[in-house]
Amino acid sequence: MAHSYAVIGCGKPRSTDGATGFGMSHQHTVGFKTAGCKVVGLADIKIENAETFKAQHGDGSTQVFSDYHQMLAEIRPEVVSVCTWPGLHAEMTLAAIASGAKAVHCEKPMALNFGDAKQMHEAALAKGCQLTFNHQRRFNVPFVSARQLLRDGTIGTLQRMEVICGNLYDWGTHWFDMMHFLNEESAAEWVIGQIDLRDRKEIFGAPIEGQGLAYIKFKNDVRVSMMTGHQAPQTAQPQFTLHGTDGMLEIEPPNCGKNHLRYVNSKQTGWVNVPSDEGIHGDDAVLRACREVIECLQTGRESELSSRKALQSTTVIFATYESSRRRGRVDMPLDVNDSALADLIASL
Question: I need a surface site. Which of 48, 86, 113, 304 has the fewest CB within 10 A?
Fold first, then answer.
């Protein structure tokens, strides 16, 4: 069954003149087209972006708009991609849900504050809309293989993880999501964290800390520590180090080549490499993610990318900010709607 599909935020293809992002709208559309969707509408505040996008991905029947509200009202697409900066995600996603879309697939991170993230999730539940967020790492081979090794008991029972990445928000949303993915979706019980605002910057309009630390206890008693920022040893240590009762597993160890995953346990005399032609980045995971969104829409199965799962990782992001504001541990459920990071920056 072909679903009508529309894009909010066409942008420019990655690495082309004037492009400021990763061309995610293009990747979404390729994925949804391979899942059988038909591109019926494109909205962008720069109409020339939509026209260029149509020439590449649409056909003679595809309509272009400078106003996404008009597009949603006139076309009423079944599936909508929201591919704009995080500060626009909530208003655009809520509009798509209200228009009657069966599925909305939004870029990550969810929103600039926790209240907006919760509102999107709750609105989708109320309208029976399948809301997903593009945490496509769930479809990268090294992460999928790592979860299977954990399920097979290769390193015994998972006890703790050590994680390194660039920041808590734009990159961190993926790594917090991977913590939940690898830990069988167990929710966080409490978070203690700290952020340093020196050398802060913005990524796609969202404020990013200079350095950050997060320590999380999950309900199944797994503990995770994450270090972020310009002094995190991102090339000197693995991106993920997982410790179990009978061994250790590393994802993206330094100078790994095609060995993006390796493990050691009591049954081995040394490290065992798990070779893969695919690493922890790449467009193929986005295509798989979009195809899975359509499969779940048709079967009713919860998507790997569901707003419920995305909200879990988003909760940890804003809980880490909140811990820094309170100078103490934050117990779940998180009881704020704003962003403590934005508040701390405003108070400087």
Answer: 48
